[in-house]
Amino acid sequence: MQLRLVFTFLLFACGSSAVYAGCPAMFDAEMRLLHSSKTVNLCDLVEGKPVLVVNTASHCGFTPQFKALEAVHQQYGAQGLVVIGFASDDFRQEAKDEAEAAAICYKNYGVSFTMLAPSRVTGDRANAVFKAINRQSKQPDWNFNKYVIDKNGAVVQRFGSATKPDNKKVRDAIGMVL
């Protein structure tokens, strides 16, 4: 009986550590969704799954890549891949108004994957996810850098802005983590 009480206490004391044992530390964050007051717990979203992380901007020459990102999401989502777009104005190409950014993503390109509210992705003020990515790989040097991350939180491959999400090299990297 005492052992059961101790075990129960430890479960409550550990809290999210027990719940998120399969979640990489880099995703242990609550972030606001684009043009919403709602937040998403990234561990709930990615636990035990590979991830494609992309830093985005709604007024960039690479913005049409949203269409290919959505196609990747549709093709690989059922196999477990999670696509997350991190809106950012680090390169001064994000809409100043989140409603406009959301319209570009959701209405113009039909984005249904998770899009997060604008945050920093470079330097000391980068959000926690990109701080972890930047320690493992080259930080974004422009919008629409793509990072294929395995279910353990390791960056498997980084693709620059010019590499489209439906490029064979990106798809091959995704295939490696599925």
TrEMBL record:
Signal peptide per UniProt: 1-21
UniProt entry keywords in alphabetical sequence: Oxidoreductase, Peroxidase, Signal
GO MF annotations, alphabetized: peroxidase activity
Domain Thioredoxin: 12-178
One Gene Ontology term from the biological process aspect of the record: cellular response to oxidative stress
KW Oxidoreductase (keyword) present: yes
InterPro entries: Glutathione_peroxidase, GPX_AS, Thioredoxin-like_sf, Thioredoxin_domain
Active-site residues, record numbering mapped to chain: C60
Keyword Cell division: no
Family, per entry: Belongs to the glutathione peroxidase family.
Protein name: Glutathione peroxidase
Organism: Exilibacterium tricleocarpae
